[in-house]
């Protein structure tokens, strides 16, 4: 799914995926919403709650290996305050995924018990995954699911064509995730999704993006960034984002004829180093930004 970031969202596309999610809802007991722990606001589709109505939901704050501890903790608390379970996970290494099945069972315990009361000996709870492109849906499915080889279409409530993965004896997952679209109602969303690599740079001005990233560092400075470029707090304070980009470019010897700084090259380098985690674990959005 890694290349889905090229998706261009247009109204017809949104209607189609919305319809797909709505028809899958009939088959499942719980929706798993995957967000990027670094940008839980921008990686969320605010229409999701409307689409899923009263279906129970669990949030996974994925890529928490790249987010700050403080940021992730603040989001878990925010969700807990809103009666939603949010689990920090890293679907690349698998860290945190052992919490998934117990959390689903806990959320759906009354459903499970009512199925038992109805005489179902071994009830199976079913979930589906939703999230915007590149947030880690396939990584999650591959890490946690085992494909069911049985003739799944014979089971009640499961129509032909739907494939299921088993997570545990009592837990199954729809194999096709619901792809949500990001909501670009604010410039910050596009910028933040580009910072994290969820959308391609070439649809945005890369220099503008680098300047914005540096501006955000001026507000919440990663110490790894300062030491990497040997920048002092004073320099950071006295220069705006574009001036900082030039300072960084100069330090890396990115000079073109006439002594001018190659800010395009400096921007590309800055964004690459940021995405490769060279500036440490950074959360770009906090609950207070909501
Ligand atoms: P999608 O289905 O939602 O579109 O996302 P997908 O699983 O394809 O993941 C998108 C990229 O994010 C992949 O990187 C994947 O490895 C990475 N990723 C997913 N979860 C995590 C996580 O928890 N932590 C980190 N650090 N990365 C994660 P890629 O560059 O496309 O592939 P690869 O280089 O990892 O092979």
Number of domains: 2
CATH architecture verdict of the largest domain? 3-Layer(aba) Sandwich
The CATH topology name of the largest domain reads Rossmann fold
The proportion of strand residues reads 5-15%
Number of helices: 12
CATH level-1 class of the largest domain: Alpha Beta
Spans of at least 5 consecutive residues with low confidence: 1-7
N-to-C series of helices and strands: HEHEHEHHEHEEEEHHHHHEEH
Could you tell me which ligands this complex binds, including any ions or cofactors?
A: guanosine-5',3'-tetraphosphate
CATH H level, superfamily name of the largest domain: P-loop containing nucleotide triphosphate hydrolases
Gyration radius, in Å: 22 Å
Total beta-strand segments: 10
Helix content: 40-55%
Give the biggest beta sheet.
8 strands, mixed
Q: What's the pLDDT, averaged over the residues? A: 89
Q: Structural class of the helix and strand makeup? A: alpha/beta
Give the overall shape: elongated
Distance between the termini: 29 Å
């Amino acid at each position: 799914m890694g290349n889905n970031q090229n998706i261009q969202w247009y109204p017809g596309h949104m209607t189609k995926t919305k319809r797909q999610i709505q028809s899958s809802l009939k088959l499942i007991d719980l929706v798993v919403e995957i967000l990027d722990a670094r940008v839980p606001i921008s990686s969320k589709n605010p229409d999701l709650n409307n689409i899923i109505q009263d279906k129970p939901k669990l949030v996974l704050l994925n890529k928490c290996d790249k987010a700050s501890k403080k940021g992730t903790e603040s989001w878990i608390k925010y969700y807990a305050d809103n009666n939603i379970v949010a689990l920090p996970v890293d679907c690349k290494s698998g860290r945190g995924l052992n919490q998934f099945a117990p959390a689903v069972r806990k959320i759906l315990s009354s459903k499970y018990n009512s199925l038992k009361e109805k005489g179902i000996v071994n009830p199976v709870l079913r979930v589906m995954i939703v999230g915007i492109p590149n947030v880690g849906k396939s990584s999650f499915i591959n890490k946690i699911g085992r494909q069911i080889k049985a003739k799944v279409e014979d089971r009640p409530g499961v129509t032909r064509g739907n494939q299921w993965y088993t997570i545990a004896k009592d837990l199954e997952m729809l194999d096709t995730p619901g792809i949500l679209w990001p909501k670009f109602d604010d410039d910050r969303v596009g910028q933040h999704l580009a910072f994290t690599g969820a959308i391609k740079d070439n649809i945005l001005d890369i220099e503008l993006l680098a300047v914005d990233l540096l501006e955000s560092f001026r507000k919440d400075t990663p110490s790894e960034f300062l030491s990497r470029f040997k920048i002092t707090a004073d320099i950071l304070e006295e220069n705006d984002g574009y001036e900082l980009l030039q300072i960084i470019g100069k330090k890396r010897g990115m000079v073109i004829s006439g002594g001018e700084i190659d800010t395009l090259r400096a921007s590309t380098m800055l964004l690459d180093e940021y995405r490769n985690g060279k500036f440490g674990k950074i959360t770009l959005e906090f609950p207070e930004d909501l």
